[in-house]
Structures are given as C-alpha cells and as structure tokens.
Amino acid sequence: MLDCKGIKSVRQTVVYTAAGTAPKLPETVTAEFSNGTVQPVPVIWDVIHPSDYSKAGSFSVRGVLNGTAIVPKASITVTEGAGPLLSISVISDTHVDTGISSKNGKKLKNALLDLKEINPKAEALCVVGDMTDHGNDDEYDLFMKILDSVDHPKTYFVIGNHDIRWHDGGYKETYQRFLTKTKMPAGHYDEIIKGFHFIFLSTDQDLKDQANISDDQLNWLSAKLAEGADRNKPIFVFLHQSLANTSVGSYPGDGYGTSGYPDGVVQDSQLRSLLAKYPQVIFLTGHTHAVVDHPKCTIFTSGFWCVNTATTFSTIPSDGYGPDNGSQGLCLDIYPDKVLMKGRDFAKQEWPVNGQWTIPFPGEHAK
C-alpha cells in the first residue's frame, strides 16, 4: 500500500467545463514524495454543488488524501457558449529586488507559474507598476529574467512610483530605463487587443507616491477614449495609482494619503471627469496592495468601474478582510455581454470565494 505520509507536495488539478455541466475531477492527483519520486495517488474531492458551475466563472475544490494533512486542490473554470472572446491576466506591485533575503522574485515566479496553469489561454499579461522596488538596472534585469523563465503572453507594463522615484538623475533617467528594459513604446500608450481598447497611463513626474499626469497626456487620453467608443463595449484603462475613494485601499481609513505623503493622482478631478464620460471604462489600478476578496475590489463609482489589482508581493488587509503577506492578482474573461473579474490567490493556489464580479454590458451595476 502506498504510504501517503511520504508526500512532500501535490500538484494542483485544473479542469474546465461548460456552464450547467458538472466538472469531471480525476480519481488521482500527482504527488511528489520526499524521496524524489512522483506518482499518482487516490484522492477524495469535496462535494461540488450545481450552483458552482451554473454560470461562467472559476472556483476551487479541495480534496483529502488518506494518511496525510496535505490538501490537494483543483481549479475549476466554467465557460459559457463558445467561451470568452478574450482572456487576460493582471498582476501588480511585484517589487522585485536583488537583496539576499528577498522573496519577491520567488513570489513573482510562483504567480507566473500559477497563471500558466489556470489561465493558459490568456492573450495578454498586464503589469500595473512597481515591477521593481528601487528602479535599478539589476532589479529590472532580474524581473525580466524571471518573466522570461515562464511561458507567458505578450506583456504590457505601467510605470509605478517605486520604478521612478529613487535616482539622482530624476524622471528623465528612470523613465528612459523603464522604456529600455520593458521595450514599451512610451510611458502612456494604447493597444487594440482582439477588438478591445486597452489604454495605459503613466506619471510624468517622479513623485514619491502620487501620479502627476500632464495636460498633454490628459489631452491624449481624451482623444483615445473617443476612438471607436461604444457604450456596450468595455474600455480598459490602467494606471498604477488609484483615484481616491474608489476601489478598496484608496480610502483614508485604508491609510491612503494619511502616512505623511499624498497618494493618488495630482489631477484627480480632471482624470475622473474624463473617465466619467465613458461608463464602459474599467479602470484598473495597483499601488494599494489591497486584497482582491473585498466587497469594494471592483466597484462602479464616479461614473465608471474601478478595480483593485492587488499585489504579488505582500497584500495588506483592509477593514479586516483577507490575510496579510498574500500574493494575489486578477484573471479577466471578456464575453460579448460581460466581463468577469476573477481574483486569484497565487500563494494558496485558490480562487477566493468572495473575489469575483460580473460587469454586464450594457449596464452599470455588478451582479
């Protein structure tokens, strides 16, 4: 008889099913033993309720292995119709540094490996700033080395305050380093991905925690938002810093702007007014490190959608929700009539129970 006490770890199981069809979970999982061997072992899965797979989304199932406390996990993704028109992955605040004791790079790699397994059809990876902790050449090089070590889709980058604020050469030096290392066309730029408009914004000044968006960039954004705009079709806008009092983490009670330095966007009212003209805007921001399993992670406010992208580095609980030091991000499934925002916990390899939202199109309220 197989001795499950010798199991060191169990590889996660990934299953896809159509809405209304019960997922078929395997009778065994792949276990890695302390002696270096790898082999299948029998598993008993928790009961799955029909409501779990009645509509598009993702959820986690846990199992039991006799003779060990190690818990096997399965990632279940439910699709509707022909599946999403487009899937993307979003991470933020990786804070890669080259310190001897740093675990940031390992957390980034674990997130990328997890995304490769649970979101293999993603056609874009968006990194919403603070790729590095100090904006140094060696940190960027390490970030890119880790990124290139895992298969991933085309990647789009946003400048974060940690990427630009440290150096004597000022914004000119750190901005050029961002362009050189990431090979982005500019700090702010846009892309059409399978017919959907993606707009990436940046700070134009090396402030400590805020974003300063120039008039030229705001005018550019105004023109880009109008290009082919359709209220029944989402526009995705990315910026590292959140607008104040929008998604979770951006409130004074969360510590936003109350630590002795301002947070947010210097041109808060101008940017807010521009985005409010387009209720189909989904504005995704990092910076706060707030957890994805919070009621205000995705929220319709100020006339458009605001979404917290969390952090792969170290999540901060807000209002008592979620553990500290977590590693989280988002997977987006875009259907003709909705966008599914799916929070993912990379450290636990789970879909948080309270971490998913449906943004309907047309419409203005999540379900």
Automatic annotation (TrEMBL):
Domain of life, per UniProt, equals Bacteria
Keyword terms: Hydrolase, Iron, Metal-binding
Entry's transmembrane regions = none
Q: Where is the Calcineurin-like phosphoesterase domain?
A: 88-290
Q: Does the keyword tRNA-binding apply?
A: no
Report the coiled-coil segments.
none
Q: Report the InterPro entries cross-referenced here.
A: Big_4, Calcineurin-like_PHP, CNP_phosphodiesterase-III, Metallo-depent_PP-like
- Asked whether the keyword Coiled coil is assigned, the reply is no
Entry's SUPFAM superfamilies? Answer: Metallo-dependent phosphatases
Residue ranges of domain Bacterial Ig-like in the record:
17-67
Q: Which PANTHER family match?
A: CYCLIC NUCLEOTIDE PHOSPHODIESTERASE CBUA0032-RELATED, PHOSPHOHYDROLASE
The UniProt entry's sequence similarity note says:
Belongs to the cyclic nucleotide phosphodiesterase class-III family.
- Name listed for the protein in its UniProt record: Ig-like domain-containing protein
